Amino acid sequence: VNTSGKPDISREKSASLYEKAKSYFPGGVNSPVRAFKSVYGTPLFIEKGDGSHLWDADGNEFIDFCCSWGPLILGHNNARIKDKVIETIQHGMSFGAPTALENELAELILKNNKFIEKIRFVSSGTEAVMSAIRLARGVTKRDKVLKFEGCYHGHSDSLLVKAGSGLVTFGETSSAGIPKAFAEETIVVSLNDREALKTAFEEFKDQIAAVIIEPVPANNGLLLQEKEYLQFLRDICTQNGTLLIFDEVISGFRLGFEGAAGYYQIKPDIITYGKIIGGGLPVGAYGASAEIMDHISPVGSVYQAGTLSGNPVAMAAGIAQLSELLRMGFYRDLNNKTEEFVESIRRFAAARSYKFKVFSIGSIFWFAFTDKAAVRTAEEIDPASMEKFKKMHRELLNRGIYLGPSGYEVGFISAAHNKIDLEKAKRAIFESLDLVFK
Ligand code: PLP
């Protein structure tokens, strides 16, 4: 029941499109979280986006803090990206042969990122991570991979694995359709637990090919890690001949041009990218030292390929977007703007003693219904607190604010969010919090 005094937004057209979609796609969607299962109502079908704003099929207008789940660091429909894509598309869509645009995007990245020497473009974050894992296994000639509870790395078989019971466990599959034997090659431990990691390395001595982490875990809340812990990971991997993979599909080009590696000044062995790198088109990538990357086919023995890898139109979008990020002061302005925004929400909630925190880094933020000063592990999130998020999400939609439809998801601020947007969003957030806690 809506008790907010604001009528729910109209969803007639979205609801009718959703009915049709359900007959075409499982659950009516092409990616599960879009189904709005964790919040009220049916999914909104989006018609257009411009700058920081979104419009749905019913003509409702929103300030968007989902930003396509991260890629749109310049906002929707950025003129420079659009122009570059249109210019490129005049010459064809795909050739399955090398183009100068691939060189151009690679050069832009490698010249401005001291953590990798060579890169390979793929078409999604999942593909980037899957390939990075294969590369690590090929280089080390070991099979096991260690991941952390609360980190998401896409939907490849080895990584759809969650912790079993016990300190160091073989994973249990978190999806049907994954052979048990695959999950047995994946070890899962809690974040921020040094002992568990030491135990894993003792128990599986000389067997762990890679430790993979989101250095800024942002798929299960925002579980910010301390630099010392990430450095500990670096050291224990080096000591054990294990490769450290930073999955920077979210943090890459978001925290700064050099992502989390640059932010923490820690050099992983392999880095994966996605989202921002493609300017809104499907691009992923993985990079490492030339020595490691030369294990990949056709020079090396680790096979990886893609019909649409390095697609010229997608490369063009990436070039246009990343060029903007290299402008002086880009990240300083974006991060300051975010800090001001989240700080005023924190002050509001603190003044009213609401059990509510905003965790943030760079231009990523997470609304957490908790009184903990820090949340570093998945286990510290109370699932019951998601009921509050659900209410807040509805109140925000009714006030023209669009967040990802789950309380475990983070929000993003783009360069297109201006003062007016952020003031309006703050007012809506304050009103919504008052209703949630009334
Ligand atoms: N790795 C991380 C850290 C992600 O956040 C995601 C997606 O959200 C992926 C990998 C998978 O990327 P994609 O959805 O492009 O396959």
Helix percent reads 25-40%
Q: Termini distance?
A: 15 Å
Supply the CATH class of the largest domain.
Answer: Alpha Beta
Number of strands: 17
CATH topology of the largest domain: Aspartate Aminotransferase, domain 2
Overall SS class:
alpha/beta
Uncertain segments are: none
H/E element sequence? HEEEHHEHEEEEHEHEHEHEEHHHEEHEEH
According to CATH, the homologous superfamily of the largest domain is Type I PLP-dependent aspartate aminotransferase-like (Major domain)
Number of domains: 2
What's the CATH architecture name of the largest domain? 3-Layer(aba) Sandwich
Describe the main β-sheet briefly.
8 strands, mixed
The 3D shape can be described as globular
Mean of pLDDT: 96
Strand order of the largest sheet: 4-13-12-11-10-5-9-7
Computed over alpha carbons, the radius of gyration is 22 Å
- List the ions, cofactors and other small molecules found in this model: pyridoxal-5'-phosphate
Describe this structure in words.
With 438 residues, the protein is an alpha/beta fold. It folds into two domains: 12-64 and 329-436, Aspartate Aminotransferase, domain 1; 79-325, 3-Layer(aba) Sandwich (Aspartate Aminotransferase, domain 2), CATH 3.40.640. It is 36% helix and 15% strand. The strands form four sheets. The chain has an eight-stranded mixed sheet, with helices on both faces. A four-stranded mixed sheet has the order 1-2-3-16. A three-stranded antiparallel sheet has the order 14-15-17, with helices on one face. The longest helix has 22 residues, at 330-351. The protein is globular, with a radius of gyration of 22 Å.
